């Protein structure tokens, strides 16, 4: 692991500056006192330079390898497209950099295993971007679970509905499982601490863009996950909700139920001639701004204190295994065990 | 008191069949097994006959005195205009009938005292239509107060906003105090058990129909009520709310706060392109249907069991005293003590 | 169909006076002006007599056939154990009585078909006790669907959680599907108007009483239902919720989402040293009192007006088909088509 | 006004490092990219040095005059005790520094006028710490007002309840008006744009600590404020709420009502054996963290852009005038006009 004084800020390189990368870059530059954005990496000519200048980062690279070789970089935040994640994790780890990687950490289990092996061998911190664990409602629910207040989980639910606006032509196969529901699979695990998924049944369809169904689009899905403690989880997703971005959770246990996610833009309520009206959040960055900052803060803290990250490689692997089983379940229209996909 | 077997239904005459009277008539005829509607009284030719036929009541009268003399009548429900209340209470009591009277039981304290004396002399049950005490939220809050869960009240609030549609030309002076806020004055007392009002400051205006202000209309008012236990109550009213009928309460005590009244038409919530929408109740009879039935059920029960009514003459007097003090406070723009008005 | 004047009350015989039967008897005797309870049937010696006396019903029988032969009986309300339903429906229909039957109308599809044939042949009104359709939240959601406000349904959810206290030894096999989730199966259909279920996947377990699992108890279940319009429904049930009786619904469509069921006992909210507290409903009769009355009112109205009942034989059959498919899906751990069970 | 390049960060000196000062210092050092904390001022020996080191501020002073003379200081944030505010504002303005001052900007109107004159003469930005204007619920309500959605305000309410733990011996006279309710007086004005207060009636008592009443403590108060557009405002405060920190608002206008402040700690809801439970916010810094940052961000922005601050000297004066009238109203138990106190 690269050397740095635990009292000084952690030097971070941002890799990828798309929608989510830009948000993380802003956070590293302006919202996290313990981090210092020291490099921006983007392959598009000029992009990294422009952002580095805007954020006051001393270095701009077009190749991630340059960041891996930069001594000022203690850690990387990977927000490149998912298909590059595993390779970037391996490279960063081999360069001795701590790694925060957006979800999914990889698109195939074999790649993910290679990445996990690399961070283990390098003994660097590794955290995956399962941000919902850092959202206040979810963290509060987990605290109740840990205190025993909810009892043993019996039924769980996790919902993700995006506000729409996607281009069906650019959605890779299984995106709804690998990139959207992977949050919900992790959330079900987070809300059922210590339990493991054993079998998955999924059903999915193209209900938002039905004409794209023949080309393999799945934009709406329901996944049932059986856990080894008997609990049954339901993960639901849809790529378009008329009312904005909708993220909710529920854990029902032997002693009670916690529900998460109210989707309100603010607590202001207007009562008028047509009744009562409440604004709803329209984007993930509006709804989850705090969680996006908190997950990076936790990562920086793990790097500084050399304590393990709160969401690591095993969590990434468990969620990806459920995603793989779900995709196969849809194709074969039968329940699929985790053992079948996660040898 | 007229004789009747406590096992048989209580024979009730309805006096007055306007908006509220019609609702009570329907309740007596169809919603209350222990009551039997035996007479309808209305001075308008043919009205009582028509309603009696519709409700299966055996008798129809144009003069309340006929009901007071009818042996089948054990009790009366008075829903005539407020200016006739006191006289009708006296007549009913002298006829030996138990009396339920819509609020306000009288428009002047002297009249009310005469009515109270009459029911006492006749030893008949007497209940005033302060229905909010019978609404589930308010009853639940009072139960918490009685259990000590709220602690000693410090601040109280009671709100009444009507849905509008009133005719400013037909609103008698001080209606907002005598007929609307009288509910809130009673509610403040109900939520501050055992305490008495000592001083009142009120401010009021014609904000809904400003052109009528010169003719004495007051359609919006705020009244501060100081109680002898130090608690301060606020009663608010307006004759027109764009979103329907709005009745709310709040009691803040040393150990916590209870709030009452959410105004929703149902628990169904719709989230759509403009955000989240909830229907609001549009009328008192929609919002308080249960309370209107419950208050008559309690009255019938008091008659059958010969136990005192839950809201009696003293409550009517206390609320009317606050109303009188509030009206004077507005005229003289100064705090007015209850002692000044309620000698 | 038995003759009666549409202006006079409908004479009703109550068949079965257990928990739900007693509630319906009370409603028929005291809450529904258009109905007259004319007979009570219960096989236990003395039970019918006692209740008939309490409710003022002129006749008490130990055999339903006596009610079917009673000319004062225009209609029956069947609340006997489910295994007797089909036979009672047939008998009542053959006696020319209109039939309201508690859900499930039968435990087997063949029996149900016989019952449906009988009511058709007799041309009598037939309504099944799917009360949730009459609960205000659900009725309001359906109204939005009918107005097109929700758009085309994509994802649906219906939840039933009982407050517990059941005796595992007395729960027949598949009760969670046939008697509990059958409400949710009907609700999913109610919230997806015009669509038909095509395939079901169910998973279930004994999580409340795990020691009874070997004896076939299933007390917790999740059922995924695919509809022919592409919508995916989720029905969830558990026999024990620590917080009381929990009934909720959700329909998410192309234009928005309606949610139903807030489970609050009243709208009163208490804020105290431990935070904010809201009482939850503890029983179905507390939460659904209005729906229980409304469904009987609708039935009486259908009888009087000779219009078809709002929830009839086809609805009973569709819900039972889903229940049958769900039970088989659990046994065989595979998706089961409706066509397989509902030949 | 001191010179600085609008592209470079605004150099800020923090004056006073108590509870609120420490929070502002943290914000300036770590949460606001456009600000740079360049000096900390605290009269207690060693305090400024310690905090300056922690926050990386280059200068630490025991005398504010040193900051006023420091060329690196473009602006000051005053969080010293209220009795020093006016004098500090004058000093800062004379030094050419922009001024953010915690509320109240002064304890007497004459002092405040002197401060306002000084900032005007120096032509520096001046903002007062009325943070509620920057809280999301309140900002959203004001947006609706500005769009005309609420119509003309008729009734307004603003509530502040502190979580308690105060020392009655250290509460100066009229603190509840000058330091607590001054937020609510400003909020009433904020929710009634363009209107001016004309008359005030206040009632107050020592209900939390009744034994201190004789020594002049007022810990609970209700203030009615009449505005020149006819609207009636109610401001309420109490120094101790069992359930935490409670800040709410309501504006009821001709076209509808906006309500603000739900007091929840998170959106997580737990339903258990005792019903439903929601955590409430326990401190202002928990509930208003975002508003505290947003008000400083707005100030920094005003300094950089040389646009007027959103809450300036006139707002401070208007709120203090209401506070003065309220205090006199309590002493004289009569309505007091603003004209009487704010010559």
TrEMBL record, chains A, B, C, D:
<protein>
    <submittedName>
        <fullName>Gfo/Idh/MocA family oxidoreductase</fullName>
    </submittedName>
</protein>
<dbReference type="Pfam" id="PF01408">
    <property type="entry name" value="GFO_IDH_MocA"/>
</dbReference>
<feature type="domain" description="Gfo/Idh/MocA-like oxidoreductase N-terminal">
    <location>
        <begin position="11"/>
        <end position="130"/>
    </location>
</feature>
<keyword id="KW-0560">Oxidoreductase</keyword>
<feature type="domain" description="Gfo/Idh/MocA-like oxidoreductase C-terminal">
    <location>
        <begin position="169"/>
        <end position="338"/>
    </location>
</feature>
<dbReference type="InterPro" id="IPR000683">
    <property type="entry name" value="Gfo/Idh/MocA-like_OxRdtase_N"/>
</dbReference>
<dbReference type="InterPro" id="IPR036291">
    <property type="entry name" value="NAD(P)-bd_dom_sf"/>
</dbReference>
<dbReference type="InterPro" id="IPR004104">
    <property type="entry name" value="Gfo/Idh/MocA-like_OxRdtase_C"/>
</dbReference>
<dbReference type="Pfam" id="PF02894">
    <property type="entry name" value="GFO_IDH_MocA_C"/>
</dbReference>
<comment type="similarity">
    <text>Belongs to the Gfo/Idh/MocA family.</text>
</comment>
